[in-house]
Amino acid sequence: xxxxxxxxxxxxxxxxxxxxxxxxxxxxxxxxxxxxxxxxxxxxxxxxxxxxxxxxxxxxxxxxxxxxxxxxxxxxxxxxxxxxxxxxxxxxxxxxxxxxxxxxxxxxxxxxxxxxxxxxxxxxxxxxxxxxxxxxxxxxxxxxxxxxxxxxxxxxxxxxxxxxxxxxxxxxxxxxxxxxxxxxxxxxxxxxxxxxxxxxxxxxxxxxxxxxxxxxxxxxxxxxxxxxxxxxxxxxxxxxxxxxxxxxxxxxxxxxxxxxxxxxxxxxxxxxxxxxxxxxxxxxxxxxxxxxxxxxxxxxxxxxxxxxxxxxxxxxxxxxxxxxxxxxxxxxxxxxxxxxxxxxxxxxxxxxxx
Length: 354
Ligand code: V47
Hints:
Blueprint: H1 2-8, H2 15-21, H3 26-41, E1 44-48, E2 50-53, H4 82-94, E3 99-102, H5 112-125, E4 130-133, H6 136-145, H7 150-159, H8 175-182, H9 188-200, E5 205-211, H10 217-234, E6 237-244, H11 260-273, E7 279-280, H12 284-287, H13 289-295, E8 302-305, H14 326-335, E9 339-343, E10 349-352
Parallel strand pairs: 1-8, 1-9, 2-3, 3-4, 5-6, 6-7
Antiparallel strand pairs: 9-10
Helix pairs in contact: 3-11, 4-5, 6-7, 6-9, 10-11
């Protein structure tokens, strides 16, 4: 088959060819993705020691897939005070945690300052702590709510200490599917524009894809193609993160669950299509730890981190509310035949846990 020859030769594949890859036998596809992964990273599997903070669940938007927002199925509205956020940060800093990942709902009641001054407080007290915060969806929301341009919001974030952007809010770029699952939220074009602006400042970000709901294979491949196009321009994406849709407590009526095989094929194809994005993260929160370990042989070289507390995906059924134990996590990676390597938020290696 020409596509196999092309992949083995390291040639770039187009949309139609990426679609053809889905028709390959799972293990044949896995071998192709694994060869690419090994060429890039050998047997190293990256993880970081991090902590998620989700400071509010009050949200103006009404995404059908969301179980976290207080305006959806399971209202229990909360907004953390800065002192409460700082208590968490003091605790994690005292335990040597190096990254704090802060994302929220789109809360119109707090004021822009609530978002930005907490970053300044964290940075002033812990200059070494990496702040990964605010999705492009939040930046879009803040720009509309407070009548500021994307540039103004981005600049104020950087001034106040945000180091990198997480990949959330990308969902699926196809406009028809996007309209169905999260109408009114940041558009695909706007999401990409915000990341392009962020990269233009020499800063790095991640990019996600929410899959396994009502989208089709072609929508996933289209999503990957749009990422590859922007990455060719900016080189600013560190990592691609396919997020497996979690089914509980939301309004997206999905009749057929995605299979493990389809998830693994999607990881593998993204490894091959995204020839310009160095890292592929199997986010154990949405794939389960077990499948994330298998995904290491299907192109994935990063399993995210210890997380400690997670509210967005766990609200929809993921087993992540309390993170994962570091020693157990590292042991699982090692026992699956890979070398656990602790990394920082920008993929500099910190320590091999071999
Ligand atoms: O954008 C919401 C997703 C995302 C569901 O950048 C759901 O390193 C599955 O983006 N089923 C937020 N997913 C999480 C996110 C993330 C996570 C870890 C690391 C990084 C990174 C980014 O969670 C949202 C949305 O796509 N999400 N509801 C659900 N029912």
